[in-house]
Hints:
The chain has a single domain, classed as Sandwich (Hypothetical Protein Aq_1857, Chain: A), CATH 2.60.300.12. It is mostly beta strands. It is globular and about 35 Å long. The model has no long low-confidence stretch (mean pLDDT about 85). It has a four-stranded mixed beta sheet. A three-stranded mixed beta sheet has the order 1-6-7. A hairpin with a 2-residue loop joins strand 6 and strand 7. Helices cover about 15% and strands about 40% of the residues. It is built from two helices and nine strands, in the order βαββββαββββ. The N and C termini lie far apart (about 35 Å).
Amino acid sequence: MDVQTGSFDPTDFAWKGLTLTPEACSHIRKLASQQPRFLGVRLGIKQTGCAGFGYVLDTVKEPNPDDLLFETDGAKLWVPLSAMPFIDGTEVDYVHEGLNEIFKFNNPKAQHECGCGESFGV
Length: 122
């Protein structure tokens, strides 16, 4: 019997985390200044769309016990632990596209996106 053994790097199993661009930080802080009891935003995922998963953003007035906090320059982003395997390493940006302003997600785990850009697959 031919058994191949290998090694693994424990850092491959450590969360890289999520990052916020300066534009995303600015927008989250702006939202916080306009809403009472607003602490930040929660980025989760749900099964949807033609590619498999969609991003879900909610305001946070009280974090959930299983949320992980990523804070940059006073802007707080919570992520449910269950979403981390799908979005770990994601950069959250806030961009202007024509007349629209939206959060954009640069997710290194996304293998493909649907044509409309509303969902992704891993």
